[in-house]
Amino acid sequence: MPALKKVAFITGAASGIGRASALAFARDGADVVVADCQVDGGLETVRMIEQAGGRALFIKCDVSYENDIREAVAQTVKKFGRLDYAFNNAGVEGESGLTPECSVENWDRVIRVNLTGVWLCMKYQVPQMLAQGSGSIVNCSSIAGLVGFQGIPAYVASKHAVVGLTKATALEYARSNIRVNAICPGVIDTPMITRFTHGEAQAARMLLNNEPVGRMGTSEEIAEAAVWLCSDKASFVTGHALVADGGWVAQ
After folding, report:
1. Is 206 contained in some domain?
2. 175-222 pLDDT per residue, tens
3. 124 a catalytic residue
4. Strand, helix or coil at 136?
5. What is residue 65's three-state secondary structure?
């Protein structure tokens, strides 16, 4: 009997790391669900996968709303019959400012997308994986989930919490054949970094000066790490926060 085709569910897949990951999972042979609130970008990701010979489904989904996640997971299973891999990647950087300057609105939005969104995804992904008897989840944290950064308190808090949530969930399902890991990207050349630096060359240079390898990472490098964490090649890895940062936190 041929092996069942794997199904990957990726949030924030309309651009950046999410899009690169959707393409990487498709190249690895998986059917891919592209979940994002950005319709045009999400449909473009699907088009790119289909042009390369893969199968993909776009689902409009805001990870900060429980109903969106519930329906997205249900549509995934209805379309493809299962859910093997999940990369909970959607996130926002929020506004810059010192801790006393962070507005309640900014705090709530960043926490709701970056942390609550990851929790809501797992809330509905895990039961499906339990029913199947297997699954692998990767949550997107950041080097800001391991060390502090001035001026983005909500982002740093949310990403630290994602690492903790990942470890807790990994322990809960370690004997259920469900692995849960986090990935902690460093400075990656994505639209988020462009927004963070406001497109200013001096700000970009400051980031590069702190990178031991002397360059930003690429979305494709993070995508390959996410695919590996989900794969059977990482079968003994769970509860781990994998750092992919060009040596940033080694300093």
Report:
1. no
2. 999 999 999 999 998 777 766 666 677 766 777 778 899 888 999 999
3. no
4. strand
5. coil
